[in-house]
C-alpha cells in the first residue's frame, strides 16, 4: 500500500534569488560546461551543493560534502532558502516543446514524501540496474546535508480518481530551464485536498522512471537511521523519500531514445563484423541519418547503424532464433529493442558484455543521434547504433516481472529540476 505524505519543503526565496539562476538539471545530467555556467549565474546556485568540486587538500573534515552542508545551512540562515510554514504537497506543471517533434506538451505531477519500501515488497518497483559509485556519492552528500535536493521521478497507473489538485492561485515559483521547459510550482496545504490525493494513490503501485540511484541511497540512509536509533520509527523523516509522481497515461509523458557509439574495439574488422551481423539481421542501406530514423518509426525491433560503409537499418531475421542468447538474461529482455542490441550485437558479436558496459570502456550514450553518427564519420568511433524510444508500457511490464532493463534504456523528458523543492530530513518528522 502506497503512503504519500505532505512535508514542509525548503524552497528558494524568490524575493532574494531568481529561480532561473539557482535551479539545476539533475546531478548526473550536469556536464562540466554546465557546472561552470551554473556557478557563474548566482552565488546561490544549487550546483555548489548538488555537485560540488573536489579541492587540493580535501580531508575527512573538509571536502565537497562538508562544504555542501555548510552552504546549505548558511543559505537557510541568511534567507536565500526558507522552509514552508505548513506541511504541503506540491503541484508541478512543466510546459515544453517535445524534442521528438510531437509539438507542445504539458506534464502534470505531484511532489510528496513517499514511504520507502524495499524492492521485494512490491510497492515501489525499479526498471534499471544501479552502479555502486553514484550511490556512494549520493549517500555521502545525504549524510552531510541531511536533505534531498533532487527529485525521484515515479510513475503510477491512472487511478479512478485523479490525485492532482486544481490550483486557484498564482504559482509559488516559476522557472525556465536550460532547454526552455517552463516549470510552475504550487504549494498545496488544504487538508481536504491533501487527503483526496492520499486516498486516490493509496492502492497505487509506483514505478521509478528516473532516480534509481537516489532511491537506493535513501533506503540505505533509512537503514542507517534505524540502526542508530535502535528501532524503526514509522513517522521519522528518514522513512520517506521526496518524489515527483506522474500518471503513466499523462499526455505530457515523453520518453526519448538513447543512442550508442562504440569505440576502442581491439582487432575490429568491419567486413567480418558485417558478415556475422548478416547471419541474424537483414541489413538495408540508407543514404542519410534522417531517412534511416524515419524508416525506423515504421516497425518494431528495428535498429539503426552507422559504420564506415554508411547507414543501415537492421531487422532481426528470426526473433526465435535469437532466443537462446537470452537464456541467462532477465525476463522479457528478448522483447526489448535495446536488449536485442545489447545481447544480440554488442555482446554476441563484439564481446561487450555487462562487465565491459559497467566499465564504460567501449560504449558511450547519446540523446542526439547526429553526434553519434558524426563520431563514426570522423573516425573517432567505430560504430553507432540508433534506437526507437522505449514505451512506458514496456517499463511497467519489465518492472512487474521483477526484471531490469539494460542501462540507459529510457530517457524521460523533461528532467525534474533539482532544488525546486528540498526535503530536509533533519528538520522534523514526516507528519
List keywords for this structure.
single chain; alpha+beta; 2 domains; 9-stranded mixed beta sheet; 6-stranded antiparallel beta sheet; 21 strands
User: What is the count of helical runs?
Assistant: 14
Largest sheet: 9 strands, mixed
| Secondary structure tally: strands | 21
What is the count of structural domains? 2
Question: How do the strands and helices of this protein lay out in sequence?
Answer:
Blueprint: E1 4-5, E2 10-12, H1 19-22, H2 32-41, H3 47-50, H4 64-78, E3 81-83, E4 89-98, E5 103-115, E6 124-125, H5 132-145, E7 147-148, E8 152-156, E9 173-176, E10 182-188, H6 191-201, E11 206-210, H7 212-229, E12 240-247, E13 254-256, E14 259-262, H8 270-280, E15 281-286, H9 289-296, E16 303-307, E17 310-316, H10 319-322, H11 337-347, H12 354-359, E18 363-366, H13 369-377, E19 383-386, H14 392-400, E20 411-413, E21 423-424
Parallel strand pairs: 6-11, 8-12
Antiparallel strand pairs: 1-5, 2-3, 4-5, 4-10, 5-12, 7-21, 8-11, 9-10, 13-20, 14-18, 14-19, 15-17, 16-17, 16-19
Helix pairs in contact: 4-5, 5-7
Amino acid at each position: 500500500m502506497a503512503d504519500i505524505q505532505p512535508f514542509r519543503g525548503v524552497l528558494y526565496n524568490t524575493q532574494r534569488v531568481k529561480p532561473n539562476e539557482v535551479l539545476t538539471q539533475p546531478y548526473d545530467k550536469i556536464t562540466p560546461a554546465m557546472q561552470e555556467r551554473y556557478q557563474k549565474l548566482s552565488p546561490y546556485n544549487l550546483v555548489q551543493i548538488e555537485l560540488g568540486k573536489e579541492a587540493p587538500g580535501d580531508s575527512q573534515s573538509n571536502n565537497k560534502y562538508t562544504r555542501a552542508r555548510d552552504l546549505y545551512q548558511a543559505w537557510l540562515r541568511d534567507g536565500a532558502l526558507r522552509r514552508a510554514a505548513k506541511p504541503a504537497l506540491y503541484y508541478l506543471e512543466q510546459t515544453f516543446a517535445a524534442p521528438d517533434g510531437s509539438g507542445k506538451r504539458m506534464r502534470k505531477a505531484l511532489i510528496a514524501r513517499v514511504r520507502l519500501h524495499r524492492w521485494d515488497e512490491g510497492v515501489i518497483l525499479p526498471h534499471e540496474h544501479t552502479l555502486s559509485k553514484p550511490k556512494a556519492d549520493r549517500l555521502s552528500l545525504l549524510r552531510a546535508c541531511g536533505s534531498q535536493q533532487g527529485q525521484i521521478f515515479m510513475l503510477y497507473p491512472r487511478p479512478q480518481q485523479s490525485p492532482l489538485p486544481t490550483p486557484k492561485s498564482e504559482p509559488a515559483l516559476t522557472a525556465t530551464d536550460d532547454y526552455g521547459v517552463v516549470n510552475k510550482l504550487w504549494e498545496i496545504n488544504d487538508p481536504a485536498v491533501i487527503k483526496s490525493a492520499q486516498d486516490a494513490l493509496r492502492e497505487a503501485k509506483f514505478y521509478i522512471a528516473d532516480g534509481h540511484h537516489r532511491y537506493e541511497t535513501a533506503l540505505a540512509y533509512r537503514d542507517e537511521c534505524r540502526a542508530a536509533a535502535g528501532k524503526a520509527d514509522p513517522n521519522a523523516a528518514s522513512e520517506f523519500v521526496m518524489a515527483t509522481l506522474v500518471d503513466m497515461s499523462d499526455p505530457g509523458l515523453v520518453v526519448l531514445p538513447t543512442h550508442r557509439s562504440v569505440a576502442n574495439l581491439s582487432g575490429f574488422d568491419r567486413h567480418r563484423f558485417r558478415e556475422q551481423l548478416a547471419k541474424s539481421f537483414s541489413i538495408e542501406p540508407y543514404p542519410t541519418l534522417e531517412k534511416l530514423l524515419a524508416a525506423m518509426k515504421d516497425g518494431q525491433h528495428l535498429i539503426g547503424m552507422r559504420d564506415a560503409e554508411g547507414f543501415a537499418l537492421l531487422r532481426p531475421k528470426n526473433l526465435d532464433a535469437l532466443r537462446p542468447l537470452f537464456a541467462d538474461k532477465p525476463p522479457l529482455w528478448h522483447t526489448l529493442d535495446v536488449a536485442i542490441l545489447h545481447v544480440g550485437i554488442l555482446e554476441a558479436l563484439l564481446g561487450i558484455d555487462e562487465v565491459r558496459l559497467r566499465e564504460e570502456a567501449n560504449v558511450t550514450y547519446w540523446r542526439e543521434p547526429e553526434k553519434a553518427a558524426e563520431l563514426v564519420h570522423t573516425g573517432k568511433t567505430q560504430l553507432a547504433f540508433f534506437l526507437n524510444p522505449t514505451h512506458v508500457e514496456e517499463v511497467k511490464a519489465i518492472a512487474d516481472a521483477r526484471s531490469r532493463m539494460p542501462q540507459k534504456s529510457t530517457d524521460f523528458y523533461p528532467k525534474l529540476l533539482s532544488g525546486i523543492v528540498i526535503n530536509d530530513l533533519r528538520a522534523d518528522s514526516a507528519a
